[in-house]
Structures
1.
Amino acid sequence: MEVLLFELTLTFYFAATVVSVAELFKGSKATSRLILIFAVAGFVLHTATIIFRYVDAGHLPITNLHEASSFFSWCIVLIFFFLEYRYRLDLLGPFTMPVVFLLMLSSSILPREIKPLSPVLQSYWLGIHTSLAFLGDAAFAMAFGIGIMYLIQEHHLKSKHLGGLFQRLPNLQILDEINYRLITIGFPLLTLAIITGALWAESAWGSYWRWDPKEVWSLITWFIYALVLHVRLTAGWRGRKAAMLSVVGFICVIFTFFGVNLLLKGLHAFI
């Protein structure tokens, strides 16, 4: 049942992605509504998939790359719905659903076997620490999408191509404000994830920090987003600079998520 639900989820997210790409070239209220319908259907099935996996595993399913990629994409769709409800942004789907689909596609080709938890992972910190981290990263993923939208809109404005996509994208001020708000959501979540991870490490290994590769790259990511907030408040960095830092920050998020687990050995390795 879980496998069927997962495949149906992937199908609906793929459909939402296809319509999203089409909307970039010729969008309408109908295509926007269709993206939302496919995304909602996929999210409902996705939630059911996670619940079934939870029942089978007996814990929050985030202990291997298959589960983590799936849960990460679920968190991104959750933030996507929040932004749709709060801001009613045009063209948000095309800058969100492809990322969601790629994460789910990577999840689909990764090993799905449920293995018994190691003694270290048998802790209440597992759900707390990882949920905070994934929700924070999801906010950064949406800030990445908004940042890309900002850079495209700014390019159209500077080149004086004021038709087509320019007229359908939100104005620069709105995009900059939403980018900032997303980072102010993601940053405290990441901070709490690092703190709870340190507390978990102390209870498991007797030290708060062990310079594990994922710990190091999480700290690098934290500093990047701390820099975004700092220079915005002190030096007035807004707009293009903030958007570019959002893109760089999310690249670090993706490397921390995939690169560290696949390329570097450490205590946080899923395998």
2.
Amino acid sequence: MQNIKKYIAEFLGTAVLVFFGCGVAVTTGDILITAIAFGLAIIVGAYAIANISGCHINPAVSLAMLITGKMNIKDFAGYVIAQIAGAFAGAGLLYSVLDCTNIGTAALGANGYEALSATGISLCGAILVEIILTFVFVYTILAITAKAENSKIAGIVIALALVFVHIIGIKLTGTSVNPARSLAPAVLLGGEALGQVWVFILSPLVGAVMAACTYKLLGAPEKPAKIHRIKSK
């Protein structure tokens, strides 16, 4: 039963992240406001469900937790399934809302490169950017949640880290750093967005692996925080 509660929490947290983060991106088109919206979604998750699931709401974060020994393979699989399902729920709700407006459903905050990028970034550039941004974001999560005494500020720090990477990433790729957040809008939109989505699934996972390996290389503290006391994207 406890596992089911964790998976439901991850489902809800990811749905909120996608609905509000991508929703603000589409309805405002403002870089800073969109970055803050994603960060606020993290803060909401941190204080709403972190005590249940750790509030990863991101397969890349869960992968890093698996590599660093903070979760087992069974929970990893359950988390990822719940996160993807939550992302589709959030994107589906956003699609339904936008369909009732004059904005339309031509964009759902999907990520992209070349023609789908505001700066026309190349494929190689998009891969590099997403790896770098995810590395910074995930390493921050691993570092801030490593000590129990950081539990009260972890959500704020992680939210600021997400805002930080979004500020530079939005104009380049739309900022993924989260495979679930990228997959759902791309599938609903189809076409070129769906054809490019592999970049925004693979690159964040690579960045997460690099962050986890670097964290292990530099050494973890002697008294790490419990996984269910922490927050992540």
3.
Amino acid sequence: MKNKIAYIFLYAWAKVHAWLPVSVLYILADILYVLVYKVLHYRMKMVRSNMKASFPQKTEAERKCLEQGFYHFFSDYIVETLKQAHVSKEEMLERAHITNPELIDRLVDEGYTCIAVFLGHYGNWEWFPASNTVFQSACMYPIYRPLNNKSFDKLLTNFRTRFGVHLIEKHSTSKSISKLKFDKTPSMVFFLADQKPGGNYLEYWTTFLNQDTPVLTGPEKVACRLELPVVFADMTIIKRGHYSIEFKLLTKTPQSTPEFWVTETYIRLMEESILRNPSYWLWTHNRWKYQREKDA
């Protein structure tokens, strides 16, 4: 009952804000920037540590500029997420669109009913559910980690599924994708694959943003085991509140590539995306929590 009341309050609060035009919401975002960055210093030590290690060649003033840019975008991301509570499909498609949906349609026509799509925490990945409607038959199935706060989790689930998207909980990833594959359900399974792996899964390390970095290998293993074509979703920020994704086919046969080839290729492409404008990546994440053990 307590969670239900909290959800009703949160949903009503989000709905009221979502009725506001985006231009007004961005005024709120500018105020939120001052609160989050100037007053609360939200995860500032983490952001600065990550940026310093990633860009040691940049001056302190250059990193400060990237830092400010990140917090401006982070504030935009918050109000843009709220906007999902009340936004038309037409406006969503205008603000967040996929430039080449025909790549997915062609793969489905070729008989690949289930497709692994790799993307990262860059730009606003939350604004693309409406794009689910632009494909001939395939539907989006993002992998997500449920939040500990049940009310917030239900709220975000409501936002993410408004346009027919189906969520897959992380703990049931393999089972759910196997079912999609063997039921021949036209589907795109989205992996946010740039996050850190759990401490028991530090299997593959590479250099990412100038640092020795453990990388998730689960997405590659699923793609190889189920023989899913792998596509990279390259996001571009066009201007404030406008994003686009271009699909890039990595391979139709990941099972025939060398071990970790898919993972390494994805990481290189993800790094290229981030370096176009580093302020749009999620720097608050404790990405480099783990250090590789040195040989004795």
4.
Amino acid sequence: MDSTPPSIMVWRSVREGGDTKTKKARRTLAIPRRCVDALKLHC
């Protein structure tokens, strides 16, 4: 199993070309363990 904690990437202000306005607009958010467990049960 991967040792990287589960996370999602959030890109605000996405442009038509698929890139964000700036690199500061990009965020990585950790996913709470209970959400990871629920997603695993769902699959």
